[in-house]
Amino acid sequence: MYDILIIGTGPAGLSAAIYGARANLRVLAVGKDGGALQKAEKIDNYFGVTDSPGGTELWQRGVEQAQALGAEVKTAEITGVEYTGGYTVHTTAGSFEGKTLVFAMGNARKKPDIRDIEKYEGRGVSYCAVCDAFFFRGKNVAVLGNGNYALHEAEFLKNVAASVTVLTNGKPSEGIEDFEVIGDRISHLSGEDSLGAVHFESGSSLELDGLFVAEGFAGASELANKLGVMSSGGFITVDDNGVTNLPGCFAAGDCIGGTLQVASAVSEGAKAALSAIKYVRTKK
Ligand SMILES: Cc1cc2nc3c(=O)[nH]c(=O)nc-3n(C[C@H](O)[C@H](O)[C@H](O)COP(=O)(O)OP(=O)(O)OC[C@H]3O[C@@H](n4cnc5c(N)ncnc54)[C@H](O)[C@@H]3O)c2cc1C
Predict the structure, then answer these.
(1) CATH 3.50.50.60 residue ranges in the chain?
(2) Could you tell me if the CB of 66 is within 6 A of ligand 1?
(3) Distance CA 200, CA 67 (A)
(4) Is 8 a pocket residue for ligand 1 (Cβ < 6 Å)?
(5) pTM of the entire structure?
(6) What is the CATH number of domain 2-108+218-283?
(7) Which of 92, 141, 248, 252 has its CB 3.0 to 4.6 Å from that of 77, i.e. a possible disulfide?
């Protein structure tokens, strides 16, 4: 059991890891890569860093710094999070438990480019199997996606729905063997008051009651929704100290909105870690 479990290893997550490790706590930060920072060609506006490193280089320095101070940093994709008294995070490298959880997953949420999808949001189209599966008991549903996150959502739904089909929308399916997979590109959705069918560019269609969007990777707001963490406009809601509405759950960086810069992510990561440290020490 980790004292502080951090999801995301960008500047916010690594900063939280550095503060947690320096407080002599057991810290794990899990992320799939260097997030938005890795995409920056060079960073010129961060205090004290005068050699204009590329985002990837600055990120690697942060990883090394966190590890040298005693934090564990793991590369894996996060597919689910549960409240289990503490927090359990499910990843492609196994599941991990923490007394506290820090969301530091950046802000990479994207909506699928499918005609009419907004029209059916909340009326058949869902972004969260854990939240909405109950409404589709005994019904026919599909998961939109092609990787680990889609598989995770499909596995959750199969215990509730009559049938679960995975729609990859033209992308190759990655390791989704236990479900019927349709690889055709989607052209549009249809239905009167709620979703009734998905239509493919090939001309065929599939009658459906529900479509669960799980394209790419699970984003911060999707996982926050699953846990019951409050968010607004796609950003996790926190107080001035990075505290969310759930006990022992904190958030920092681009996933809480604000200025969306390395400097703010680092500052918010520190604040969230200080709140987590206080929480762990109070509970001892
Ligand atoms: C092209 C570009 C240029 C930029 N230039 C600058 C600049 O010059 N100066 C500046 O201050 N800021 C710049 N920024 C913004 C800056 O990069 C971000 O504000 C900062 O990286 C946010 O840090 P973060 O830790 O909150 O999120 P991120 O850096 O996005 O890190 C998110 C972390 O979450 C992980 N993650 C997310 N989902 C999952 C999942 N399902 N499974 C596993 N891991 C997951 C990611 O792998 C990553 O580790 C730039 C951004 C971009 C895109």
Answers:
(1) 2-108+218-283, 118-213
(2) no
(3) 48
(4) yes
(5) 0.88
(6) 3.50.50.60
(7) 92
